[in-house]
Amino acid sequence: MPREKLDRFWLESPDTLEARLDSGPAGLSGDEAKRRLALHGPNLLVTSRQRSALADFLRRFLNPLVLLLLVAGAIAAATGDVKSFAVIAGAVALSVTLDFIQEHRAGHAVERLRRSVAVRVQTLRDGQPRDVVATEVVPGDVVLLAAGDLGPADGCILETRDFCVNQALFRTGWFIESMATQVLVIFVIRTRQSPWKSRPHPWLTFAALAVVGVAALLPFTPLGPTFEFVRPPAAFYLVLAAMAVAYLVMVEVVKRWFYRRLASEPAR
Fold first, then answer.
1. Residues contacting 38, CB < 8 A, separation 6+
2. Burial of 156 (0-12, 13-18, 19+ CB in 10 A)
3. Where are the domains of the chain?
4. Does the pLDDT of residue 47 top 70, yes or no?
5. Per-residue pLDDT at 203 exceeds 60
6. pTM (predicted TM-score)
7. What is the side-by-side strand order in the sheet with 120-125?
């Protein structure tokens, strides 16, 4: 079998891939699988050169939502609303820091788990299902997957039964919900009072509503398919509104508890 790189293999038909990989519906023979394992090496991801912690932290400020919040803060500062600017800057710094810490910890946890758990999969060898370690999967293997199984490598679906996936709706919903809640929460945390008792600066209100409006309408524009968004059903926006209200109420409750506790502590 030639050791060739299969670029954009997902665009190829299954018959073409089987021919190029010298395989078939019955999979590989045991001897051929051993030969390919020796030729290609174990099925492991090559660890790329990791970025420094500082570069990874600064990279998070390139997030579109963070950039929009920074622009809103800059507008507030330019119009003299220093208090709103300080609140936005503090919220962005806190959000980015927490996100960095959580992802850093999660990355280390995943790496430890990956090293401690040997994933096993079923492949067809000599026409029969055989349980092998995922690192021994080779190009041309036919892998049998069931509900809950992990895909051991990139591949092409040859045959399915009761199989359906729709990540586009989840991606669209997550984007709109994140933009709405993380922008509207500014109106809750910007003041010690109840948000409806403190009038925000008009430019802050305009910037926040503009961000939420753009996020809600983006799936309906020609740019939607570029980001792999789909048009959500009308009921989705009712669920989104309920989630946003629940989130803002929780933030308001935590804020009041924090200020009450802060006021009850003796001055140092």
1. none
2. middle
3. 53-108+166-264
4. no
5. yes
6. 0.40
7. 128-133, 120-125, 143-144
